[in-house]
Specification:
- Helices cover 10% and strands 46% of the residues.
- It is mainly β.
- It has a single domain, classed as Hypothetical Protein Pfu-838710-001 (Beta Barrel).
- The protein has an eight-stranded antiparallel beta barrel with strand order 1-5-4-3-2-6-7-8.
- It is globular.
- The mean pLDDT is 94.
Length: 158
């Protein structure tokens, strides 16, 4: 069984940008988003994956990911996935032996940036960089499958 142990945070400022090692643009869509799980297709410039993730809210979820042909994935995104698709650039930042992934959303979710850290096991301590803001791990609105159903542009912003 594959487990994803992850924390999600908003960003307090842009100082993380000076630490980016590399970035990858993703396009992803959901074939299914149900009470128990979601099934996602994700494409980068050269690779594609099918991902199945439990719909559990919190730091620990079941996750399975498999490489698939890029042509098939693009056809699924265009013809089978629910719209709107999630478009984002993921920036990678390494701090104290951990890799942070900062998702800078585009399209209907433009203006939203979320930082994530995956841990090897539950309870592992990690340093919170000064650029981190509020933790939103338990807020379902910040999950990608929720953003596909209720995009950031539809939220009430104050």
């Amino acid at each position: 069984m594959a487990l994803e142990i992850e924390h999600k945070f908003l960003l307090a400022n842009d100082s993380w940008r000076q630490h980016v090692s590399h970035s990858v643009r993703y396009r992803q869509g959901y074939l299914s988003s149900a009470v128990t799980s979601s099934i996602r297709v994700r494409v980068s410039a050269e690779h594609a994956w099918l991902n199945i993730k439990s719909a559990t809210i919190g730091t620990c979820r079941h996750e399975y990911e498999y490489p698939i042909p890029l042509t098939d994935a693009n056809e699924m995104l265009d013809n089978l996935c629910l719209k709107p698709l999630i478009e984002k650039t993921r920036h990678f930042v390494n701090i104290d032996g951990f890799q942070w992934e900062i998702d800078e959303f585009e399209g209907v979710n433009q203006g939203l940036c979320v930082a994530e850290i995956e841990l090897p096991e539950i309870g592992v301590a990690f340093t919170k960089p000064a650029w981190l803001g509020q933790e939103v791990t338990d807020d379902v609105r910040y999950y990608n499958n929720a953003l596909a159903q209720n995009p950031y542009c539809n939220w009430q912003h104050t």
